[in-house]
Amino acid sequence: MRGGEGRLAACLRVWLLLCFVLATPVMAGQALPMAVLTDVYGSETIDSVRHPDRADDFRPVTRDGFSGGFTRKVFWFRVELDPAAFPAGADGLRRTVLEVQPPFLHDLRLFVPTPSGRLEEHRAGTRHGFDQQGLGYRSAAFRLVFDDTRPQTVYLRLQTHSSAVLVLRHWDFEGFYRDKQGEYLLLGAYYGFLASAILFAVLLGAWRREPMLRSYVAHLGVVLLFMLGHNGVLQQFLFVEPNLITQNWAQFLTLLLGVSAALFYRQALELDATHPRLARFYRVVQLLCGVLLPTPALELYSEAASLVTWLLLLMAVSGMYASVQRWRSGKPGGVLLSIAHMAALGGGSAVILTLQGILPGSYGLIHGYQIGTVFTVGALSLMVLQRVRSLEHERQLMQARAEESERRQREANLARERQQRMLASLSHEVRTPLAMIDGAAQSLEHLVERENAEIARRLDRIRRGAGRLKGLISRFIDLDRFDHPDLAAAPTHFDLEPFCRRVVAQIRSQRRVELEVDPGLQVRADAVLLETALVNLLDNADKYSPLESPIRLEVTCPGTGSVVFRVRDFGDGVPEDEVPGLFECYVRGRAFSGDVAGVGLGLYLVRRIAELHGGSVRYERGQARGGEACGGVFVLEMENQ
Length: 641
Description:
The strands form 4 sheets. Strands 3-2-5-10-7-8 form a 6-stranded antiparallel beta sheet, with no helix packed on it. Strands 1, 4, 6, 9 and 11 form a 5-stranded antiparallel beta sheet that branches. The chain has helices spanning 2-19, 46-49, 173-204, 211-230, 233-237, 244-268, 271-274, 276-291, 301-328, 334-355, 363-366, 368-447, 453-482, 496-505, 527-543, 602-612; strands spanning 30-31, 34-39, 59-60, 65-70, 74-81, 94-101, 107-113, 119-124, 140-146, 152-159, 163-172, 492-495, 513-517, 522-525, 551-556, 562-569, 616-621, 632-639. Helix content is 51%, strand content 17%.
């Protein structure tokens, strides 16, 4: 995998260096002097604009091209041609080609005077098709023939519902074909670069698992389709006849580009986690561009684009800020994302300012975004490669952790099996002798004289010691059973009042226990487990409270789909520093650890039983009662389904 990535990255770098000089079509040909007249309402005709009285209404275009911004206005251009500057052919005729850029203009009409004094109209643009003159070119191009060297004035009418940008150049006939052949070769290399970047991202394979990489592949696909329409290649080779698709392709893809760019860069910059407000702005841009997708077909694109293009420029600026912040904080991909934003901002800002009518139209400005994509896509592809390698490293670490976890689980299961066998053996080998000892001591109590207090005391100690050992063995067996991962509660419905009375009857000092439970109250729980939990809580209260004080077991159903058991005693309570670890395994109170039997398992088992029922157990310090301190309350709360 790593060797394949290295070869792909090397190929990408070669393409990046090559396409730096291939991004822009050849800027040859010669500019022509022209002037422009603005037809606000589209009511002018060729006869009205060429009237001698209208000559002063035309204002000179001082640069190589014109930009009128996003508008519905119609623009008339007066162009001065000097046939003497065109080379004469063998037949004495002088031929030239007028090239009009960009290719996405909708309606172009060129009016050329004929020797008879009439005007000959030539049409081009996305509404009419580009190849009416048979030149086989991707943009509007008009072939003109002159039989003398007299200066000629031609008129060009431009109407579009996109941006009114126009760059006009003229060529000698042979030079046009020779130059455009090289231009198509360079454009092919440029599109090959974009296609290679898409293939590079797909072959990495991580896009199946990583949403950001899927967004990147989709964004590259939109960029490729956008550039095919922006350069007129799609219209020339796929949609030869004019239709709704050819008329709106570049405009529709511009909005779709806003959707894909907002989605991808928000994920690549991790804005949701690092800059939430900026992430919301990206979401707004993404949503707005998506909502405005139908506007080209409705001929409302000029109004939509005048807003969207500024938002896209603001998004590029804010993305540049976020990527630099990422770079300075040392996060992965920060440098490459900064380079990508810098290239996109450099090329995209020139295009947006030109489309808005702020900068004049020119070859370089029109194709600024195309130049920027070379560096942007190259930097992003390297960033994606870094991200994929990082993901692969994380995947390997996770796999290693999973294997280590499985190994530890196997060892734990083996240790548990050994522990179960040991406990089973201990239960059999120890309980039988303990029963014999307890039985012998009990028999001796009947045989010896009752007046002999010393013998009775020692027999009682023997029996209590045997009982303590049996209790410890039972607790260890319970611990092993409750800690088993396959243990699950087996709930049934039963009445709580008789159940709680049976529980209280198992307590050594049952006369101390005061039971408060509503008659008829039912619960759905595992009766065996719940009995164990309540016995442990009551036994704990019995051990750690004065013999003359009462113990209360209160059962309530608060109406929240749960049942609450409260075991209240009036002892000294639990010290504050011991409360956090009260329900952990093998934890006992320090003040009573030597005087009270036990190993610190009772409250831990209560917690496990509560968890098996989807509940919890907690300790609450009691409130003072008539000047007498209330030790504490253990609260066991479980779901009552």
